[in-house]
């Protein structure tokens, strides 16, 4: 399915935005329609890019990065909602400004966001040697979080039942493609480029240490007092109440928080409340095959 122009689809929240494929990766029609512009996006050498698979701790990382850049000044991080502060380069919802437009209008140095797998990343980011922060989350929790996100976010396809979604996710038939290919692709790229690769589970277990790591990568030398302040303001409970970070300012016809809150649990191991024994066995078998060619390891729960 392809529509000739984005205007052919008017988004009113009654229907979901249709999807198509870009080089084998599922994307919404509006993104597919301007793919050439996205691919040819011109990064600047002082751009900082936050890259993740959807629902891998993106918003959390954005908030940490913003507070690092502003040396713990909470008022500055309250200047605008997350989606205004960090242009989402490939995202476009009819009736809202596209990430490309936002990025082009933003003064340097820019901090940008993407969910693109490495093979679809606009080449200028790597050509300009931009700093890139990648965050990966264990696939079981990632799947559960993405499922609930698709339930509440009408700008993405309806996920179907949990059983149906489980199959779609394993097959990589979700927007931004296969989780396995995504995390492996970026893992492989990290040795050739200025990429710091973080894990959601490490951020949960040792947040201060990971925030320190990010600050060093960004080039900020922060004292313990500032780090503690950032730690507090980026805790799940504080962020859940932060209207500039919890996506509550997005119109309800796009994101309906009564279906599932954007910031739902933010825990490690919630997959155990969703996976059946049979699904877990099947997932583990599939994971073993797909991850056999990678040195990546994930924590699926805390002991």
From TrEMBL:
Biological process per Gene Ontology, one example term: sulfation
InterPro entries, per the entry: P-loop_NTPase, Sulfotransferase_dom
Magnesium found in the keyword field: no
Domain Sulfotransferase: 46-294
Alphabetized UniProt keyword annotations: Cytoplasm, Transferase
Compartments, record wording: Cytoplasm
An example molecular function term from Gene Ontology annotations: aryl sulfotransferase activity
Domain of life: Eukaryota
Reaction equation(s) it catalyzes: 3,3',5-triiodo-L-thyronine + 3'-phosphoadenylyl sulfate = 3,3',5-triiodo-L-thyronine sulfate + adenosine 3',5'-bisphosphate + H(+); 4-ethylphenol + 3'-phosphoadenylyl sulfate = 4-ethylphenyl sulfate + adenosine 3',5'-bisphosphate + H(+); a phenol + 3'-phosphoadenylyl sulfate = an aryl sulfate + adenosine 3',5'-bisphosphate + H(+); 3,3'-diiodo-L-thyronine + 3'-phosphoadenylyl sulfate = 3,3'-diiodo-L-thyronine sulfate + adenosine 3',5'-bisphosphate + H(+)
Transmembrane segments: none
Top-tier EC class: transferase
GO cellular component terms, A-Z: cytosol
Record EC number: 2.8.2.-
Entry similarity comment: Belongs to the sulfotransferase 1 family.
PANTHER family membership: SULFOTRANSFERASE SULT
Protein name: Sulfotransferase
Biological classification of the source: Eukaryota, Metazoa, Chordata, Craniata, Vertebrata
């Amino acid at each position: 399915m392809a529509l000739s122009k984005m205007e052919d689809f008017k988004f009113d929240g009654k229907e979901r935005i249709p999807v198509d494929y870009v080089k084998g990766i599922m994307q919404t029609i509006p993104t597919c329609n301007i793919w050439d512009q996205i691919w040819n996006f011109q990064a600047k050498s002082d751009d900082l890019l936050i890259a993740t698979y959807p629902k891998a701790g993106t918003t959390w990382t954005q908030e940490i990065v913003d507070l690092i850049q502003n040396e713990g000044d909470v008022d500055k991080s309250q200047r605008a909602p997350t989606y205004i502060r960090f242009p989402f380069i490939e995202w476009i919802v009819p009736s809202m400004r596209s990430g490309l437009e936002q990025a082009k209008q933003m003064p340097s140095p820019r901090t940008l966001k993407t969910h693109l797998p490495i093979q679809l990343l606009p080449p200028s980011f790597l050509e300009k040697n931009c700093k890139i922060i990648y965050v990966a989350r264990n696939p079981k929790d990632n799947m559960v979080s993405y499922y609930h996100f698709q339930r509440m976010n009408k700008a993405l396809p309806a996920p179907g039942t949990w059983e149906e979604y489980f199959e779609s996710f394993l097959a990589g038939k979700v927007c931004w493609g296969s989780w396995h290919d995504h995390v492996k692709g970026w893992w492989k790229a990290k040795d050739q480029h200025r990429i710091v690769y973080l894990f959601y589970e490490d951020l949960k277990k040792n947040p201060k240490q990971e925030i320190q790591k990010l600050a060093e990568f960004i080039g900020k030398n922060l004292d313990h007092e500032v780090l503690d302040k950032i730690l507090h303001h980026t805790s799940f409970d504080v962020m859940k109440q932060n209207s500039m970070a919890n996506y509550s300012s997005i119109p309800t016809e796009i994101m309906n928080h009564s279906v599932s809150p954007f910031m739902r649990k933010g825990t490690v191991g919630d997959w155990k409340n969703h996976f059946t024994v049979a699904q877990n066995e099947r997932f583990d078998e599939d994971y073993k095959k797909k991850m056999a060619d990678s040195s990546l390891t994930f924590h699926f729960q805390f002991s």
